[in-house]
Amino acid sequence: MTTAGISDDKATQQASHGLGLPAFFMTFVPGLGQWVLGQRARASFAFASCTALFFAGWAFVQDRLFAYSLTSSEPGGAWIPARIGIPLTLPEILNLPALAIGGMLTFESDFESMRAWFLPRPMEDLGGFLTAASGMLAAFWGADAIWSMRWLRDAKDGVTPAPACNPALAAGISWLLPGAGHWLAGQREKGLLMAAAVLVVFAFGMLVSEGHAVDRQIASVWWIGEALFGGGALFAALVTAPIEMTSSPDNLELGTNLCTVAGLMNLVVMIDAFTAAERTSFPVAQAPNGGAA
Amino acid sequence: MSLLLRLAIYVPVLFCIAVVVCGQQHVTARQTIRDAVRRSIRWLLYSAAIVVAMTAIELLFIG
After folding, report:
1. Are residues A19 and A136 in the same domain?
2. Which of A23-37, A66-80, B23-37 has the highest mean pLDDT?
3. Which residues are CB-neighbours of A77 under 8 A, at least 6 positions away?
């Protein structure tokens, strides 16, 4: 079957080949992919938006971010990246330049400084969300560059239809509101279904944990997964996380698990939204049961 | 937590996960739900088999 002048089999085969590791590693520097493609204004905006978002959050959290990282503050326990000012902190590490600058500006390895990492800061919930959001934004700008590369490689002038929306935008908006990317890509009912699925699991988690499941101060590693549902993490940062936990809820672990599962489900939803938008330009053959071949 | 409450959470969560997993292979909500129901039932049977196996192992080795 041939659609829009491009062989489906060929398009699927080319897409499966991917764009290679250089394209992947370029996504760690916001705007680098666009810069390489000659989209200088877009590249500058990508870099500026990610950096501004990171330092907006950094103004609140500062070196407290080291306490959220996957490195240990035990003497000799910190990984080498942290020693040179780059905490291994997800998802901030996706915005590598800003994280490195912030880290190098504040990293002190003496005992008192390390102890200070664990002291709460005013509005750190919002700050921690914003620094993480800068990493996610960098990932979406990376996805935008990847999409542009694929368009340059596979699209045929005047033949390949423009996508219903930019696939990176579909993924990005799904991060904040699950299913919104599918809506933009034209799969409206499926988008609502995806939104309901993620929101139900997230709501279960918040209910059974009495609202304390999504809190970077309490469970920073679990929060990495929870933050994959950006809308939920933002809600928690603004509403539930600032509320002090006087006693540990009976089902805190269950709630944390469920909210992390909701985040991981939303990762699948984001990727699917990207694919749904991409296929409005590069469709694949349909199987007889209605699924993609 | 009572078994009823655990099931009241487990079953709908399993179905929601199935919706997201199956959604990748379908374009419409109707196809997705139909496939998700089938897959949820299959996963529930797997879950029951795992619980039975774990209980049997517990009885065998711990008593």
Report:
1. yes
2. B23-37
3. A71
